[in-house]
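Structure in, sequence out. Go:
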């Protein structure tokens, strides 16, 4: 798919974030969603496979959730 029609009211314009920061929003959201879905409990071990943008988003979310390393 090359084009996608999105209603204008679904778009968010940021006056404070640069384009390079906005480009990482989806990667961070995927990482946060993965951590949320994993339902890690305190003391459980987490392993991140991959150091790309999504892996980094997952790692950042894991650190925020304070798992055992």
């Amino acid at each position: 798919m090359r084009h996608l029609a999105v209603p204008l009211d679904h778009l968010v314009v940021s006056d404070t974030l640069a384009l390079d920061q906005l480009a990482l929003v989806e990667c961070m959201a995927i990482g946060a969603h993965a951590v949320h879905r994993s339902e890690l409990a305190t003391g459980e071990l987490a392993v991140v496979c991959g150091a790309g943008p999504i892996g980094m988003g997952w790692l950042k979310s894991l650190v925020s959730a304070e798992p055992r390393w």
